[in-house]
């Protein structure tokens, strides 16, 4: 009897081990102190970075066991929110989601109050979002090639919207101007949210935005989509060719996003935040939502700090000559 009882006890323990270990691992992975984490999004609500950030915050909350609260701190092309994180206590309770603007700010802002490569710990790349060229519904171009022809014939007569100096839309427009050797009449807004009503009402001619914001308006036929900025067409916007197919060789732009913590954040805290990031980007709901917006998560191999840091350094060097040649600075 004793032998059978002992065997049953051991068998029960063996069967329970995976669940017990999982529970123990989850308990050990809980966020120290149980305090909420503030995820700073350095732009106004409703934009593409905001959409990515809120998806990320929701999924990371499930993994960390504490609330990850998305907070919008806009202004000055994102630099106000970024600087707030640079100056935050490096304990992991204030983190940052930022886009390609982290790489362009050192050129656009000649008195930038932080150095992107030294003021932060890189936690991993999140997603690389394609962009799409959009026009008002009655714009007299049926395709991207016709849009380019109209621009070449009189670019200054065409209004090009952007979400502010240094925004993804402004960078996309700057590249197009450089590629065509012409100028537009730029109309700047405080974020991407106010641009769509102007575009739909016909008061704005063209706009280049990230697919995460543009797709709902494209699907509802409220605006026209003429080209995507990827090397191949996007399943998320069927029937829309690439800019290269439309006649603009080499025009490829992806607005990447990365997650950051203040410099000096302890390595174990960085590792735990990275684990939560990887958990979020593997979550089926996040993958489905991001992919549906044309912006799937970065591959696992790019979801780490080392790759993130190297990518940021390379992007700073890539964009510097383009922005210097454009001659537009924020200060």
UniProtKB/TrEMBL annotation:
Listed Pfam families: TctC
Protein name as catalogued: Tripartite tricarboxylate transporter substrate binding protein BugD
Identify the keywords attached in UniProt to this record, alphabetized: Signal
State the taxonomy lineage.
Bacteria, Pseudomonadati, Pseudomonadota, Alphaproteobacteria, Acetobacterales
Signal peptide annotation: 1-27
Family according to the record: Belongs to the UPF0065 (bug) family.
């Amino acid at each position: 009897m004793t032998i059978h009882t002992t065997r049953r006890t051991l068998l029960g323990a063996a069967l329970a081990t995976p669940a017990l270990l999982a529970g123990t691992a989850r308990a050990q992975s809980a966020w120290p102190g149980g305090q909420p984490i503030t995820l700073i999004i350095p732009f106004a609500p409703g934009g593409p970075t905001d959409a990515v950030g809120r998806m990320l915050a929701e999924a990371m909350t499930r993994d960390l066991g504490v609330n990850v609260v998305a907070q919008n701190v806009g202004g000055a092309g994102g630099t106000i929110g970024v600087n707030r994180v640079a100056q935050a206590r490096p304990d992991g309770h204030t983190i940052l989601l930022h886009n390609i603007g982290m790489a362009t700010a050192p050129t656009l802002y000649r008195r930038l109050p932080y150095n992107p490569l030294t003021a932060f710990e890189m936690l991993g790349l999140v997603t690389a979002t394609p962009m799409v060229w959009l026009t008002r519904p009655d714009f007299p171009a049926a395709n991207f090639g016709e849009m380019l022809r109209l621009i070449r014939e009189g670019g200054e007569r065409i209004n090009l919207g952007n979400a502010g100096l240094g925004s993804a839309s402004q960078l996309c427009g700057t590249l197009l101007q450089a590629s065509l050797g012409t100028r537009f009449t730029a109309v700047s807004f405080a974020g991407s949210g106010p641009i769509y009503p102007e575009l739909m009402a016909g008061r704005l001619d063209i706009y280049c935005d990230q697919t995460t914001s543009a797709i709902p308006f494209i699907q509802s036929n409220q605006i026209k989509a003429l080209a995507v900025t990827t090397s191949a067409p996007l399943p998320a916007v069927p029937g829309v060719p690439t800019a290269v197919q439309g006649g603009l060789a080499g025009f490829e732009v992806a607005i990447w996003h990365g997650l950051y913590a203040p410099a000096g954040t302890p390595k174990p805290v960085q590792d735990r935040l990275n684990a939560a990031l990887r958990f979020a980007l593997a979550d089926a709901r996040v993958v489905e939502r991001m992919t549906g917006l044309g912006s799937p998560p970065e591959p696992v191999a790019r979801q780490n700090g080392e790759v993130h840091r190297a990518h940021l350094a390379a992007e700073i060097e890539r964009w510097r000559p383009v922005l210097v040649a454009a001659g537009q600075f924020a200060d």
